[in-house]
Write the structure tokens for this entry.
Amino acid sequence: MMAPLVRDSALVWLASGVVGVSFGAIAVAGGLPLWVPVAMSLVVYAGSAQFSAVGLLLAGGGPLAAAATGLILNTRTAAFSLAVADVLGPGRLARLAGAHLVTDETVAFTLAQPDPARRRAAFWVNGLGLFAAWNTGVLAGALAGTALGDTATYGLDAAFPAVLVALVLPALRTDRSVRRSALLGAALALAVTPAVPAGVPVLLALAGLVVHGRKGGAA
Amino acid sequence: MTSTTATVAVILVLAAGTYAFRLVGPALHGRVALPARVQELLAAGAVVLLVALLATGALTEGGGFAGWARPAGVLVGGVLAWRGAPFPVVVLAAAGSAALLRAMGVA
């Protein structure tokens, strides 16, 4: 059971690690001390929120805007934590530690598994590996600074949406009602993206659930 | 440049707030019996959020269009995934196509 989980997770880890490198490099090249990206990655551990917070700090957007934007971006993790709550395990420590590992990639990877035992293993294998890869990458990037160049050259920005496509495709194929909700939600999110702050479009996508019919109903 | 105190405050507020969001699920689990319909909507909601993330991530950057190379790469990955290609193939093909298009001068 473990070998395929590790094999499929490995590319998620690798891609995250390289994005982590670019995060560390951007933060340090922009003038922040090394400990800022490193500490932030350990305790916040949420890529998009970290990029936006550091971007705002470097652009002089102010600490309030930096914290607020990051928090708006991370509200979705509340919904994700509800979706994976039953796979963390029964112990208090497992739940407290597991909560910190709730990310887009790990949740998508977990929910793509067919049964509860595999979902639990997938969450911990993918989550712990991703935490290690992300933080190692950030430290390496912060140490390397500007030596790396633009990661867009390697097409890494296309890898992340593709990871999510591969992971949600089974759910979209089998459940017509979920598919309709997701398509409507994505259309809404894209439509409002130019007009609203980062993080808000994805939250508005939840409005797509209005077309989600009851299971077994006339969906 | 923002002061060190303010930077520490940003990191701590962001960390505490994010962890609080992440704790919602584990904290409620087993204490509140959610109706079947709510559980159904939560599972669907996670997929809706992920699809919105991938759509905005594939097509937009900083509130505007991300250029053609990225969505083209994601599309290549998506078609391969649809045809049942293994996960690593999907991801490498997406990144490789975007990188190739950029090397050819497509933004």
In short: Chain B touches chain A through 75 residues (CB under 8 Å). Residues 4-28 of chain B form the longest helix (25 residues). The CA atoms of residues 16 and 22 of chain B lie 10 Å apart.
